[in-house]
Amino acid sequence: MVSAAIRARSPTLACLLTVRAAAGISWLDGKCLAVVGDFVITSPNVDFVPWFELGICRVQAMADGRFGLADFTNTPQRFSDQFPHSALIPEPPRRMTSSQSVFWRTPGREDFMELPGTAFLDVGNLSAAFLREVIPLFRELRDDVEEWEKTHPRDWQLASILTNVTQAFGRLQYATYYFQDLVNDFAYFSRHMLDLNARLAFVKKYNFRSVVDGSSDGPGNLAHWAIGAWTAEPAHVQWLLRAGIPVWYVRTKRDFAASMSTR
Ligand SMILES: *[C@@H]1O[C@H](CO)[C@@H](O)[C@H](O)[C@H]1NC(C)=O
Ligand SMILES: *[C@@H]1O[C@H](CO)[C@@H](O)[C@H](O)[C@H]1NC(C)=O
């Protein structure tokens, strides 16, 4: 049973220890713990540690147009004040079973319509059938942003991501591509759709959930579907815990040992 549970979450590190998992948790407590090299990783709100890059990594596009494990839509990133919404990207396995799964698919040869009557090989466009599946969610998200903007000050990131998504959508509708260029452009579109979805959730809800208003300063209800973020800053851990977003706190072994002995 245990090994099956661990395998199911691959690629993750098994949880080695449960520290005070019950009531009254604070940002320093851990529901699980993993030791990676010189670092100790704990989480106050989830019981697993996924794979993420602790150092600097080389980013390279793969055959599917994405950046493998380095892609911010595939792996939790270090929390950034500039892009806090990245932690609200849906976790990859969940998004594959959602009604929106077509977005994270990769167009195959069967989705590529070669243009007839051209002297060039491998030139074509995205099939109308594939596009039809993509249109409803694109419209829904775009309408949600427009609805939000009617009653709230403009969020520049939201507007900028929507502009880029809309342009990419136009290309997918009308442009002709080489097959690999189509795959790459669809991956760009899909990555920005995830980003737009996450930014919208952030400005509408999570930005406010993270604020301590005095009535309650406990951890927020956990968004199990979110990819989460890791950080070395206690203030970020508090922010994410409060907002109810999965968070992993990374400390050196020395800092971890020091914080244990001062409790
Ligand atoms: C792809 O190109 C064909 C031929 O030019 C065209 O009939 C079709 O509508 C195009 N598909 C899309 C999704 O625009
Ligand atoms: C939108 O695209 C432009 C041009 O490629 C880029 O500079 C900008 O950072 C993009 N905006 C977002 C929010 O990704």
Could you characterize the architecture of this molecule?
The chain has 263 residues and is α+β, with helices and mostly antiparallel strands. It has one domain. The protein contains seven helices and ten strands. The strands form three sheets. A five-stranded mixed sheet has the order 2-3-10-9-5. The chain has a three-stranded antiparallel sheet with strand order 6-7-8. Helix 3 packs antiparallel against helix 4. Keywords: Signal.
User: What multimeric state do the chains show?
Assistant: single chain
Relative helix content: 25-40%
State the shape.
globular
Question: H/E element string?
Answer: HEEEEEHEEHHEHEHEH
Tell me the Rg in angstroms: 21 Å
DSSP strand tally: 10
Q: List bound small molecules.
A: 2-acetamido-2-deoxy-beta-D-glucopyranose
Low-confidence stretches: 1-25
User: How many structural domains are formed by the residues?
Assistant: 1
Q: Main beta sheet, described?
A: 5 strands, mixed
Read across the widest sheet, the strand sequence of neighbours is 2-3-10-9-5
Ends apart, CA distance between termini: 35 Å
Structural class: alpha+beta
The overall pLDDT, averaged over residues, is 84
| Count of runs of 4 or more consecutive helical residues | 7
User: In what range is the share of β-strand residues?
Assistant: 5-15%
Short note summarizing the structure:
Residues 1-24 form the signal peptide. The chain has 263 residues and is α+β, with helices and mostly antiparallel strands.
